[in-house]
Design a protein that fits this description.
Number of helices: 4
Structural class: alpha+beta
Helix content: 25-40%
Strand order of the largest sheet: 2-3-1-4
Radius of gyration: 18 Å
Order of helices and strands: HEHEEHEH
Length: 104
């Protein structure tokens, strides 16, 4: 097996762009999509886990009731996020954005 030296330099600009896109994403698919505001409603019991282990660094609690807690996240909607949210089962509901709620 031969190795060919392509003499290609890594650009700091590309590294910075990749780092910025990954910062707003859970996983690595669909990095070219826009960052969206996502609202999730969870049970009080599930909120204990969400508070202890946030789904994403952008997560913040926006409402808290006697039975339900609502969180907001700002990130790219992609397959990894969808699968993560689905893994919580019936204890999580997508409230916004509408297209994501329809999918869920």
């Amino acid at each position: 097996m031969e190795v060919e030296d392509l003499e290609i330099a890594i650009s700091d600009n590309l590294y910075g762009l990749a780092k910025e896109r990954l910062y707003n994403c859970l996983g690595v698919s669909y990095l070219n999509n826009e960052v969206e505001s996502i609202h999730l409603a969870v049970t009080i019991q599930q909120s204990l886990f969400f508070d202890q282990e946030p789904l994403h660094h952008s997560q913040e609690k926006v409402k808290s009731g006697s039975e339900v807690v609502v969180y907001q996240l700002r990130l790219v909607i992609n397959n990894e996020l969808k699968m993560k949210i689905m893994s919580y089962g019936a204890t999580v509901r997508v409230l916004e954005p509408f297209h994501f709620k329809q999918w869920f």
